[in-house]
Every structure is written in C-alpha cells, then in structure tokens.
Amino acid sequence: MMTLTTFSRDDLRIETILFTQCEASWDQSLEQTFSAVKIAFLYVLPLLFMSVAYFQIVKVLWSSDNIPGQIVGGGSCRRGGTFANASAEGQLRSRRKAAKMLVAVVIMFALCYLPVHLLSILR
C-alpha cells in the first residue's frame, strides 16, 4: 500500500509558515520495486518499441532500390533517362536523410530521458 506523510522542514535558513513536504512512507524494498517498474514502463519499453519500429522503417528506407510509384523501363525521360536518374537519386538521398532523422530521434529520446531515470536509480 502506498501512503504519503507530510512533515515540516526545520533545517531551512528562513522561517516559513505552513511549509510542508510529502514523503512516501513505505519500506525500501517497495521503493526499489516501484523505481524499477517506473523505469521499465516509462523508459526501457518505449525505447525498445521505438527502436524496433524505427529500425524496420530505416531498413526499408535505406536499402530498397525501387521507389514506390516509379515507372521502370519507360516513363518520362529527358535525353536518355538523365531526368529519371536524377529524380531517383534525389528521392534516394531524401529517403536516407529521413532514415538518419529517425535514428536521431531515437538517440535523442534515449539521451534526454536517461538523466531523469538515472537519478531515480541513484536515489
């Protein structure tokens, strides 16, 4: 059972009126269990799901040579296919840029939330 108790701070340098703080009043093993569950559900699982999902997207964006909607063999070509090749290279470059952005999003999520959860572990 989770309960909170209030207490007043006597160690402050200034005199305060009606200044109280809440503190969890459970034993250390429950505190450690709560911290572990909180880290698992708020950091590890989202990071894992995001990494797996974005890895699948990045794999498709980075490795596939055919571009959806591209006409193979015919289509609008200008002077021997240079227009089609330039367009395909531009789309491939854009897809790789998007893939790099997805990797950056996962890394930024991991780095930004790591200190918060690391402090929770250290406390």
Mind explaining what this structure looks like?
- The chain has 123 residues and is mostly helical.
- Helix content is 63%, strand content 8%.
- The chain has 2 helices and 2 strands; from the N terminus they run E-E-H-H.
- It has helices at 28-63, 82-122; strands at 4-8, 20-24.
- The protein has a two-stranded antiparallel sheet with strand order 1-2.
- Helix 1 packs antiparallel against helix 2.
- The longest helix has 41 residues, at 82-122.
- The mean pLDDT is 79.
- It is found in: Membrane.
- This is G-protein coupled receptors family 1 profile domain-containing protein.
- It is a multi-pass membrane protein.
- One of its GO terms (cellular component) is plasma membrane.
- Keywords: G-protein coupled receptor, Membrane, Receptor, Transducer, Transmembrane, Transmembrane helix.
Question: Can you summarize this structure?
Answer:
The chain is mostly helical and 123 residues long. The chain has 2 helices and 2 strands.
